[in-house]
Write a structure and sequence with these properties.
- InterPro entries: DUF4440, NTF2-like_dom_sf.
- Pfam families: DUF4440 (PF14534).
- The protein is an alpha+beta fold.
- The protein has a single domain, classed as Nuclear Transport Factor 2, Chain: A, CATH 3.10.450.
- The protein is 23% helix and 43% strand.
- It is built from four helices and six strands; from the N terminus they run H-H-H-E-E-H-E-E-E-E.
- A hairpin with a 5-residue loop joins strand 1 and strand 2.
- The two termini are 27 Å apart.
């Protein structure tokens, strides 16, 4: 179901850029950058079925071996003036796993006085999809 609230193109591009920044090695390696992007009440349900809070992410991501990501089919919708949802499809390849993992991704972003912060992220396994060659 689509939101009735219009999404400004610049806001949509900004939220997708924030989402993609969380997949950059320099951001993932920086507890301070992660701290700025993730709300204190952040929760993640991973595609593996595990649940993580902000403190766990801050302690894990900076030292984690980064997978190879391919993301496509981004969509942004406003839930309210201060809450937005970003959805997309992801393909992850990890060094120790022989096959790529495919998932549908959804993030909830909240507007604060300091900018937008992610409050929720979920990865749900899905069937393999064709990679866009854009």
């Amino acid at each position: 179901m689509k939101s009735n609230l219009p999404v400004d193109l610049s806001l949509s591009q900004h939220l997708v850029m924030l989402e993609l920044s969380l997949l950059k090695p320099n951001v993932r390696a920086s507890s301070q950058m992660l701290d700025n992007l993730l709300a204190d009440d952040f929760v993640e349900f991973s595609a593996t079925g595990k649940c993580f809070d902000k403190q766990h992410v801050l302690s894990r991501l900076p030292s984690e071996m980064m997978p190879d990501f391919h993301n496509q089919d981004f969509d942004v919708r406003l839930i309210s003036a201060e809450i937005a949802q970003v959805t997309y499809r992801a393909r992850l390849v990890r060094d120790k796993e022989p096959r790529p993992q495919f998932s549908n991704r959804s993030s909830i972003w909240r507007k604060t006085t300091d900018g937008w912060q992610m409050v929720f992220h979920q990865g749900t396994p899905c069937a393999e999809f064709t990679i866009d060659k854009k």
